[in-house]
């Protein structure tokens, strides 16, 4: 089982159309919220330098829809680390509807690639901060990636 960071969400009126299904753009908004809450909980020192020393610049975002979500659906947005390079991070997201009986249903899959750039002067790539590398290592998508990412953390 792949470890993941989870953000729970209850779909509200403002996120749905007149007929009650969720606007597609909300899935991308939820990716950003999940990433932000991860930083808040697991890498607050990165947030302290956010906007000045480091900016997470989104270079790619995607979402594949499997089933529709509707008003008051309870959702689990599950984020995992797909790839970690010197200057970029790729996240994977699973959107899972949670049923009252404990069952789960995959409703969408998404991805996001961010580049770490300097927040001072002209934007230029910088290394992923070590505190963020440390925080992400346990959420790698597969054991081999976790080992590579742990080695990358140790080697700076």
Automatic annotation (TrEMBL):
Pfam family, one: 4HBT_2
Highest taxon, organism lineage: Bacteria
SUPFAM superfamilies: Thioesterase/thiol ester dehydrase-isomerase
Identification of the protein by name: 4-hydroxybenzoyl-CoA thioesterase
Organism: Saccharomonospora piscinae
